[in-house]
């Protein structure tokens, strides 16, 4: 029984905090805060990631001129073991906390659940925060940076960044045009036999296909009804696979399809191989690039999917394949 | 702005799957499935944990005579890095998947979000599944079992078990008396300076206190209005601290307070020191012991809190304190 979730959640504010490599990329001028050292004043990479979450959510609160006691709940997650980026990063906020783990799908997962809370009137406002950090991710998932390992051509580059969003019931009066989350299609966990942790795009593309096809079938929508269809972090390899899969399914997406992992870095100049990835990838691209375009009128209607590869370093060593999931959100720009 | 969430979610079915030590405890006869080898037919402890989740949710579906296409979404989590117990364990179900991480608070967190979904009519039915495994937890959080490390007096014993729940809109007609989730108070992340990973009860007790006090203040309820107030896995040490804290706050709980970590093992005979812990602890005690008592009429009204300590082995080594969270659910037995 596939069904979409009807939502009516306005993005009250979105904020992005990134590191040096992201600042040097095509969206460099769009981010709210940049630390060229990638350290954010912290002694460890893990604390730096937590600090990015704190800064991103604080910035979102400030942009909305919203005090924390008006925020009903926080939905947050990251890639670190036991999601410590979120647990430590958001500890200073006196707000109920829901920890999530959807790997790189967490941005859409957190926005989906926050939107459910405000659309059903349970809370007036909710926050959604996610992050990833290249240095904490590399030493946890692959090898410590000091080893200087070579990267395979399909390997993706984990984005150092955190995106934070404040959503509110869209019936709350807006000042000017804003981005509204109107529908969602939650993803199902899928696994198609890929067990190469350096090719996560290939592992995640079938999950994105499954969610997109279910959304188009249930709603009767077509790719051409949207200005843009953008996935979280399939990158170049996974993005190409998804394009092919959707064409075979009878939903060719053509030029209106892109991926946050392609948008965030210059492919050749920045030597990122497969493109950007990580929970922070789709979060900071949504916050700094897509939502502003929905607000300005440059985009009217988009589909946004975050895609997550939910393996662990141990599960890969134990010979398991990579389970993936993709959650879809439909955004509209509205006066 | 503290507020409770009003819910109306009936427990359609609850199932529990445990290992040998749990089977030898006081609730041994109440569990649905026991594997005396703790291996559940799997080659690794991590796969064994995943298999417990699959079995537990399958058993819940069978008890409710419910096909998986009637289940709108699954909310699941566990303690393993990247929550692979849930991602791999529930992969075979063709149901939208929301991954959660709230450490040992995940049982209440998953039930809370599943209850929101059915109480607001977004889905007709939802599943909530959590697990922990002594052998996978020890080698991940402390030391491999083969080392034969000595345990400190306050150390808790991670429960090998998985609990699964199927919830439905309580307006759906029930056959006989059942357990209904009527209200929830989500927890805030709190940290009070404890950084001893062998004394998690002490780290989690202030989080439970905070949630309980906020619930009593907002609702005007008192401990004496409940047959039982039961926390997830504070164990003996944390449970005593919570009792003291609540007395100081003017809400003495007396004999009506207990903890799932005390209920699941014989303290001395089973050499468990601080009591049981882990996501599976509160999940299997709720599924096998508390819900049947609500259904039989032995209990009418209880408060159930799962408590989570959200540190990672790395964050402890880096000198950080332990952030904790406790989510509260109010249950009533109803015809």
What does this structure look like?
The first copy, chain A, folds into two domains: 5-169, Stage V sporulation protein AD (Peroxisomal Thiolase, Chain A, domain 1, 3-Layer(aba) Sandwich); 181-334, Peroxisomal Thiolase, Chain A, domain 1, CATH 3.40.47. The first copy, chain A, contains ten helices and 13 strands. Chain A has helices at 20-23, 45-63, 84-89, 106-119, 134-141, 200-219, 235-248, 260-263, 279-296, 313-317, and strands at 5-18, 33-34, 71-78, 97-99, 125-132, 157-158, 161-169, 178-185, 228-231, 257-259, 276-277, 301-309, 324-334. The model of chain A has no long low-confidence stretch (mean pLDDT 96). At the A-B interface, strand 3, helix 3, strand 4, helix 4 and helix 10 of A face strand 3, helix 3, strand 4, helix 4 and helix 10 of B.
Fourth-tier CATH superfamily name of the largest domain in chain A: Stage V sporulation protein AD
- The CATH architecture of the largest domain in chain A would be 3-Layer(aba) Sandwich
What's the SSE pattern of chain A?
A: EHEHEHEHEHEEEHEHEHEHEHE
Which spans of chain A have pLDDT < 50 for at least 5 consecutive residues? Answer: none
* CATH topology tier name of the largest domain in chain A: Peroxisomal Thiolase, Chain A, domain 1
Q: Rounded to an integer, what's the Rg of chain A over CA atoms?
A: 18 Å
Query: Into how many domains do the coordinates of chain A divide?
Result: 2
What percent of the residues of chain A sit in helical stretches (DSSP H or I)? Answer: 25-40%
> Total strand count of chain A, please?
13
Structural class by SSE content of chain A: alpha/beta
Note the gap between the termini of chain A: 34 Å
Mean pLDDT of chain A, to the nearest integer, reads: 96
Strand content of chain A: 15-25%
What's the number of helices of chain A? 10
Instruction: Based on Cα principal axes, name the global outline of chain A.
Output: globular
Broad CATH class of the largest domain in chain A: Alpha Beta
Largest sheet report of chain A: 11 strands, mixed
Which protein chains make the most extensive interface, counting residues with beta carbons within 8 Å of the other chain's beta carbons? A-B, 56 and 56 residues
Oligomer: homodimer
């Amino acid at each position: 029984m596939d069904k979409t979730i009807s939502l009516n959640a306005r993005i009250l504010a979105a904020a992005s905090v990134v590191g040096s490599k992201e600042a040097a990329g095509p969206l460099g001028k769009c981010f709210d805060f940049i630390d060229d050292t990638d350290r954010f004043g912290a002694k460890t990479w893990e604390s730096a990631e937590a600090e990015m979450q704190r800064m991103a959510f604080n910035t979102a609160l400030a942009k909305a001129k919203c005090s924390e006691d008006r925020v009903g709940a926080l939905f947050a997650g990251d890639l670190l073991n036991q999601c410590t980026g979120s647990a430590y990063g958001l500890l200073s906020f006196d707000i109920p906390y829901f920890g999530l783990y959807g790997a790189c799908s967490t941005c859409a997962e957190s926005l989906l659940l926050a939107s459910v809370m405000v659309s059903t009137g349970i809370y007036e406002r909710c926050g959604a925060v996610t992050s990833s950090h290249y240095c904490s991710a590399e030493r946890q998932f692959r090898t410590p940076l000091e080893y200087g390992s070579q990267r395979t051509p399909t390997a993706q580059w984990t984005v150092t960044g955190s995106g934070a969003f404040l959503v509110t019931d869209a019936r709350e009066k807006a000042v000017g045009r804003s981005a509204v989350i109107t529908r969602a299609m939650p993803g199902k966990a899928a696994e198609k036999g890929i067990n190469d942790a350096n090719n996560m795009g290939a592992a995640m593309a079938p999950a994105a296909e499954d969610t997109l096809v279910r959304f188009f079938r249930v709603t009767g929508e077509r790719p051409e009804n949207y200005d843009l269809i953008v996935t979280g972090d399939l990158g170049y390899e996974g993005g190409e696979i998804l394009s092919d899969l959707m064409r075979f399914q009878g939903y060719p997406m053509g030029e209106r399809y892109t991926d946050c992992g392609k948008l965030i870095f210059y492919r050749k100049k920045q030597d990122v191989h497969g493109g950007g990835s990580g929970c922070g990838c789709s979060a900071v691209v949504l916050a700094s690039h897509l939502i502003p375009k929905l607000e300005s009128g440059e985009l009217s209607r988009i589909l946004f999917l975050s895609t997550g590869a939910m393996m662990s370093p141990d599960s890969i060593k134990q010979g398991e394949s990579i389970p993936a999931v993709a959650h879809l959100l439909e955004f509209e720009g509205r006066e």
